[in-house]
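Study both lines:
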Amino acid sequence: MTTHAPQAAHTVTLPGTLDEAVAALAAMPAAVPVAGGTDLMAAVNSGLLRPAALVGLGRISEIRGWRYLDGHALLGAGLTHARMGRPDFAALIPALAAAARAAGPPQIRNAGTLGGNIVTAAPTGDALPVLAALEATVIIAGPEGSRREIPVSHLLAGVDLLNPGELVGFVRVPLLHAPQTFLKATGRTGPGRATASVALVLDPARRGVRCAVGAVAPMPLRPLDAERWVASLIDWDGDRGHLDPQVTTAFGEYVAAACIPDPPPPQDGTEPVPLPPAAIHLRRTVAALARRALGRALA
């Protein structure tokens, strides 16, 4: 760090537990927590951030694994993308494993963490639309051992924010035991930042389809009307895969139009302004991803 940013951080604390990390942040309000550091170090090296102190989370073993809890998986915020991409995790939450494998080149997957993806909240974060579609929640660790739980979507939308001294400790994800998919488009061949991504999960118990679109807005978008419409057409008691291809095509277009809508008509009565070519291309990309995601989930 000192090679690239000599004035970045003067104090580095390496706590061994989540509560010790919270205490360290309370003692040093200007400190910045760091796990994989894939986004933090990019900001430091580019001169956008000069933290006075760092609280390293790499030694906190309790947040680096997962366990089962009441029909859910309790995922540690320190889980790396590489770990989530392995076959045993893919059998647990396939869409999140697919997103982890698509998160970037090996050096990024080996360092980047689930919690970092959530807290950084970059629009292109691959895990975010999956967590939104799964309706996951985050468990936040606070001072004096306190814990509170909020939906991931609330944190990403700014409805509920981290208070000073709080850390994301765990992510609670429901285990649906049903098909789920994640697809993304990038601007180049191979791993890269998403220009658009789609996560889709089936929930047979509630006869529902949940879809989230990433990278096209500051936070993942849920096309709720499109979800309800296609769920009403699926034969949940019979052959789910027997769905007219025209329905999957219409679903993709429905999702894309909901997430990238036409401009509102001018109030002065003049001709509506058409979508710019870049937005039209993005809408087509989202439609194709949503169509394919639904087809794969139903196959």
User: Anything to note?
Assistant: The two ends are 48 Å apart (CA to CA). Residues 277-298 form the longest helix (22 residues).
